[in-house]
Amino acid sequence: xxxxxxxxxxxxxxxxxxxxxxxxxxxxxxxxxxxxxxxxxxxxxxxxxxxxxxxxxxxxxxxxxxxxxxxxxxxxxxxxxxxxxxxxxxxxxxxxxxxxxxxxxxxxxxxxxxxxxxxxxxxxxxxxxxxxxxxxxxxxxxxxxxxxxxxxxxxxxxxxxxxxxxxxxxxxxxxxxxxxxxxxxxxxxxxxxxxxxxxxxxxxxxxxxxxxxxxxxxxxxxxxxxxxxxxxxxxxxxxxxxxxxxxxxxxxxxxxxxxxxxxxxxxxxxxxxxxxxxxxxxxxxxxxxxxxxxxxxxxxxxxxxxxxxxxxxxxxxxxxxxxxxxxxxxxxxxxxxxxxxxxxxxxxxxxxxxxxxxxxxxxxxxxxxxxxxxxxxxxxxxxxxxxxxxxxxxxxxxxxxxxxxxxxxxxxxxxxxxxxxxxxxxxxxxxxxxxxxxxxxxxxxxxxxxxxxxxxxx
Length: 458
Known about the structure:
Blueprint: E1 2-6, H1 18-32, E2 36-42, E3 50-54, E4 67-73, E5 77-83, H2 104-121, E6 126-130, H3 132-135, E7 147-151, H4 172-175, E8 176-177, E9 180-181, H5 183-190, E10 193-196, H6 199-204, H7 215-220, E11 225-227, H8 256-268, E12 276-284, H9 290-296, H10 300-303, E13 305-313, H11 315-327, E14 332-336, H12 340-349, E15 352-355, H13 365-371, E16 375-379, H14 382-387, E17 400-402, H15 407-421, H16 424-435, H17 442-456
Parallel strand pairs: 1-2, 1-6, 2-5, 6-7, 7-10, 10-11, 12-13, 12-15, 13-14, 15-16, 16-17
Antiparallel strand pairs: 3-4, 4-5, 8-9
Helix pairs in contact: 1-17, 8-12, 9-15
């Protein structure tokens, strides 16, 4: 089986959010299972390829010139890199102002046109598209191979001017949505199979509250929609061998976690104490409920807890976190930006991970945290619902769940988690249950294989 896998991000070479990790993790597991996966990425940086060759493609005039190279890229393997006008930028999506590049539609629509041409050039069996950046490939390819479309986050739909419909040679009506060009609407109408990145998210996006305006269309395609929880890379996220940690530890001996906690406190500038340390590693967006975490700050002293946040994003949330750290010195700390090694130390050194998302398609941080013996405190949404069991409600509990993403339920969940963390025997039991779970990509990859085989008629 030959699969053309197109995405705008792919770890470790182009990483902005969870899409990059999900793409690389799934592809690695599929390749291990014997699937011939050809990865197609935008050529953001002119990466050097081993065994490089060129591929001729046919694209519309507005998408030219298109340069396509195939070869082997460190960390990715077999890859096809696509250079189209404007695709090479300092950030895949955002300008220095923090806003989207004004020509993102043209950049990714041109990329998608090349993806469509590659289906013929490479004679693939399955086309696997991810998020809006690749969706308009289905406006060009004819005939389309059996196609899977994965929704990583429905909030991002790439909606653009209706005039773009005239640039599409096929299926213009599919992409016409409320007087605009909507790439996601077109992919949802045209794909043979649709995958949401968790079962609960697959249910949520069929509701008015969670469907981001496309719930009716998703209800119409319910028979084609399935939810598959993402995995994580267990070699990258392994506390027994992680080079970022001051001391390794594992499920049979978590004593090294104490030293990791002390090391993280020192690095964050938090007071040396026996308080429960709460960590957050997150994009600073409204989706992630950062304001709900900020609302907990005045209560930390009474809870005998500390909070360290690592993340970047919305300027108002950055200011809010700086203000909270200034108002609660030694108890709240914030690091603006993203540091991969530091994120590992946050997961290893924290007692709790706070993840108060308003919606969460899948989420990776809660799985990474549990792998490191850190107990997640989450809201009851999307993939968080599917991966975290409330320890106050179930004997098999792995974390603490706020009933809804509002201030009082989140504060209650934090309080319950802090209280549990003070009882060593209970804390260690919850930790071990989380650390014992197989979060690898093996299971999700098998489910994707089932999807591929179903649309191929096997």
